[in-house]
Each structure stands twice: as C-alpha cells, then as structure tokens.
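Ticket 4471: requesting a sanity check on a complex prediction with magnesium ion. Repro inputs:
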Amino acid sequence: MASLFEIPIEHLNGIGSKKGQLYRKLGIDTVGALVRFYPRTYEDWSSPCPIDKAEVGDTVCIKAFVMQPVSETIISGGRILAKTRVYDGSDHLILTFFNNRYIRSMLKTNEEYLFYGKISQSGGYKEMVSPVFLRPDVGEVVHPIYSQVAGLTTKQIEASAKQAVAMLPEVIIDPIPDYIRYKYNLAGLKSALTKIHFPSNMEDVKKARRRLIFEELLVLVLGLTSIKSIAKKRSEIVISADHTEEFVGLLPYTLTNAQKRAIGDCIDDMINKKSSMNRLVQGDVGSGKTMVAAACAYSCIMEGYQAAMMAPTEILAAQHYETFSKLFKGTKVKTALLTGSMTAKQKRIILQALSNGEIDFIVGTHSLISDNVEFSKLGLVITDEQHRFGVRQRSDLLAKGKNPHLLVMSATPIPRTLALMIYGDLDLSVIDELPPGRQVVDTMLIDDSVRLRAYNFIIKNINEGRQCYIVCPAVDNNETGLISAVDYAEDLKKGSFKDYRVEVLHGKMKASAKDDVMQRFVKGEIDVLVSTTVIEVGVNVPNAVIMMIENADRFGLSQLHQLRGRVGRGEYKSYCILVSNSKGQDARRRLRALCQTNDGFVIADEDLKLRGPGDFFGSRQHGLPELKIADLAENVGILHDAQEAAKELLDEYNNKDNLLLRGLRAEVRMLFNNAGQQLN
Ligand code: ADP
Ligand code: MG
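Returned structure tokens:
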C-alpha cells in the first residue's frame, strides 16, 4: 500500500498531464491517494424498490415493465416531451423525458428495465423525470459516485479507481492488529478498500465504511492522545496550597456543587503535579464559569503567581474586570484591564506594572497576546468563551509564561465525546447545574403578523422599569434581505418606540462608542438596545428581561440559545421572542425545539444533527485534521469504539520498538502533518 503512494496518478491508463492536473485538484496525486479517495455516495441498482414502497422525493431504482408505447408531444420551444407508463406488479409509474428523440426506440413495450431517478408526483400518479435506465442483466450493481471537478466525471474516476484498486498488492499488512479487528468486528483493509469503491450491494458498503471510519477515528484519537501526552510532560508551576475556602469567603453567595467540582478539578490539576493543568470547563450560559476562573486565579495569585484572562470582546473584558475588582477589593489581589482601545499611555503603565509583577490578575482582549506584553511570573492562563478563539491564540498567550497552567472556558455545550475530540489535548469539567433561583426564560416563536403585539409587550415591561434587547442579523443594508440593526433602530425611534430610549450597538462601531452604549445600557439609561450578535457572549444586565431576535432562522440554535442566555439573569421573569417568517419545515422545527427546551446540551445535539460540527467552531479553528470519511456528528458509536480501542493500544503504540503498530503510526503522522501539526 505504501508504495502506491509513490506512484504518480499519471501512471494510470487514460491519465496524461492534463487529466493529472484535474486529479490533483481533487487532492489525488498518487495511485494510493486515489485508492483512499472514497466515493461520495452510491447509486444502488442492486436492490430495486417496489413502486408502491417508493416515496415521493426518494431517489430509487425501480425494476418494471414498459406498459405502453412511448408517446411524443411537441411542447414550447419545439421540445419533445416523451411519456410512458411502467408497472412492476405493485403499482404504476409515469416516466417523462424531455427532448430525447431516442427514447421511443430504446424503451420497448412489454420489456423489463431498471430505472434510476427521483420519484415525484404528477396528478394522482408517481412519476420519474428523465431517469437513467439499463437492462436488468447489465444493471443490477452498486455504482460509486465520486466528487467531481469540471472536466472529470465520476464515470472517469470510477474507471481509474478500478485500475488503482487492481494494483493493490495480493496481501496488505493491516495497520489494525488482528485482535482489535476481531473484537470490533472490522473488515480487513484490502476488502474494505476494494468494496468501498466496488461493492456488490449496500451491505458491502456498510461493512467497508465501518472499517474505514473506525480506522480514521482510531488514527485521530491516537494522534490527539499523543498531543496530550506531549502537553502533559511540561510543567514548572506548582501550587502548594488550595486557597478556595478563603476565596469562597469573598462571595456573596455559595457555590453550586458543579462549580465546586470544577474548581476542585482545577486545583487538583495545579497542586503538586508534575505537569501543567490543561482543562476545559464547559457550562451552559449563566452556569457561573466566571467564578470558577476567579477561584483558580485566586489560588495561583496567593501562591505568588500572576493570572491572565483573555475574553473575546472589549465589553466582556471590561465586565470581567469590574466583577473581579469588586470581588477582590480588600484583598491583596491587584486586578487590571488591558484592551486595544486604551490610550498608549494607559497601556504603558499597565504593561510596566505587569512586567514588574505589581499586577496579579490581568483581564483583557486579544491585546494580551501583543508582543510588548510581558509577565514577571505568569502562572495561569484563562480563555473565556474559547469557541471565539483559535487554538493558536490560546498557545500564544501560554507562550508568555514558562508552561503556565491553562483553563479554557466555553459555553458552547457540545456533546462530551465531541468535546474530547475537539479539545483532545484538554481534560474536561462540565458545570451541569445552574445557580439556584434561576428563572426559566419563556421562549416564543412569532411572525410579522403579531409584531405590534410583541412591541406592546416590550413597552409594558419597559414601563415597569425593565430593559430589552433586539438582535438583528445584519449591521447595515449592504447585507441584502436581512433586517439591519441601524435601520431598525431608526424605525423604532420614529415609530412604536418614539417615547423610549433606543440605541444601536454593532461590531462596526468604534470600540469606545460600543463601550459607551454598553455602559449606558448597564446603567439603565437605555430601554431598548438594538444590536447585532456582538452581545452574544457574556455580558450581564440583570434588569434586561426581553430578548427579541429578528430573522431568527438565520442563526444556529446554539447561537440563539447563547443570545437567550443574556436575559433571565436577575430576579425578573424573562422572555425570548424569536421572529421568523420562514415557512421552511426545517427552520420552524429547529426554532420550535428552542421554545421547548432550555437545556443547552439538548440544543447542541439538535444543532449538531442538523448542521454538523462545523458550526460550533470556525471549521479549521478547532485545529482538527480534515477527515476523509468519518463524520464526528454521525459516527458517535464508532467513535466510542475507536476511543476504547485506542486505550487498549496506547501502551503498544507508545512503544516505538513495537513494529506491529508501525502502520498506524505512519497514518497518524500523515493525518496530522496534513493539518500542519508536527507530531513526534
Ligand atoms: P457564565 O457561565 O455564563 O459565564 P457567569 O459566570 O457570568 O456565567 O454567571 C452568571 C451570573 O450568575 C452572574 O451574575 C454571577 O454573579 C451569578 N452566579 C454565579 N455563580 C453563582 C452562584 N453559585 N449562586 C448565585 N449566583 C451565581
Ligand atoms: Mg461567561
């Protein structure tokens, strides 16, 4: 197999330098790469579906007799409309072809054919428009369908794949050891590689896929585990005592059990261990992650180290700074804020104090990773709302210290297995409990027809002294078709809300202007804040009780849930109003799911099913290598198996003298080198 990766794709018949370039466009540079270029899908001609079982919208193969001669009519533009009717013993099906003058001679009455196409509805009958058809004796197989590029059809790729698969050696040494293959009931590599391209039936496809998905996930898990053990090796900063009890004395409330557990995990990681903490704390919006961070920072600082917390927006950084300043007032902890919008002079003072150790706890934005930021004794790095950062930014901040401890916080509640994949180099603590007395936010889905009633409802709440957010998907009119925050705010000021204080907030505003608006909203000087999703993360305004979201169908469910988390943070009953005029079934189903649950994990699962994992993180951002066949959202069962197998194999895998796992090691290197991550 290895050697096929050394044979250029042009070696195959019918591929010259021109075609070769097209193959390279698909990432296929060698014969081996073509063997590993799996079909995108299949046309299953192997098991025809009875017509009465075929549903409208299904793409199926039908095996049926032509019942009458093909009729031809001339329609607009002089085109020929050819029609006939077929029957398979279960039901009739109408066939329609456009502009194909040969149909009449090709389809013979009373003869049987296989037809492949999509079932539609025509009058009271099922219909197939322009199906592909074959004689049963040549047709009953499964055809691979490949991703194509212009100039290279799936049929051509199929022909080349046939040659490539034929070049596989008689016996392939399987990278997965026999005992693992038996235990997890996996096909052998050669059989899987052959059948994935040329299956006899869909059962073959299933077996081949399972084997190849397992292999890919096993390779991924082993790779991530080695990153983890590399990360685990380094450490210097040792906390020798837990100061959490003292810290708790500063709080106006008691910690939830989940918070205590998370803090306990972190302290345990940091105390007297040879390696740095490397932990993700994941908890739904409002679960109280900030205090987990503060507790960890406190213990570190009491032990003579500095702590740094990076937040994705200035607003959030400023809010954390305020929270911590208040909390640590009267203690020896000196807190400071660093953001891009501060004046050069302000920054200079902070940077100086940071590098000579006068500041214990610095909260800031990306500006914390600027070159001129230096610490005297950085012991703990915290990133808040990690899904807004890249793996790179996290490591840039870490590089400011000598292997400091790392605490990553995220409100994006992704299923545990997926979290372990994506943050494979991190340990995980989940805060699965909200502080007591939290109000459930009532969520409703409305359309334009009741907009005025919704406005009146908002006004009623404002009159009672409360505040409201209205979120729009676009900043201005450049993004066509979407409601823009700027215009919307203008309309409100002139119309329904002319007697109220309406302001707009969006990402294109200057940082100082944003800050000003947000501060005034916090102080209660603004009744309605019309905003883009800049307010998505973190900010805390307990007096705000309504979150209205325009064009709600344009957002991911997790994002909507995050926005909803901005209200219901105080003592008042709170509401989330989703506005959508979308008639789409899927869109409405998604939004209704949000009305029915407040559990971020359920919502994340739903999102994952509908939109795939890419949405949780800018796709490359999570730093995972690109997968060829496995799908982290769909193949959760196989992922579990692969994780278990990885555990069983780990000792052998780490023993570099063990030749049995040579193949797997090579695959791990290949997968991660492609992703730009060097592994030893
Ligand atoms: P998130 O996990 O979304 O970052 P925060 O840390 O901002 O949540 O906490 C949300 C709110 O809950 C804050 O106002 C905070 O003061 C409050 N809070 C946090 N922990 C507790 C607790 N144990 N009991 C009561 N209120 C808490
Ligand atoms: Mg937070």
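Notes from triage: The first strand starts at residue 41 and ends at 44. Leaving this open until the requester confirms.
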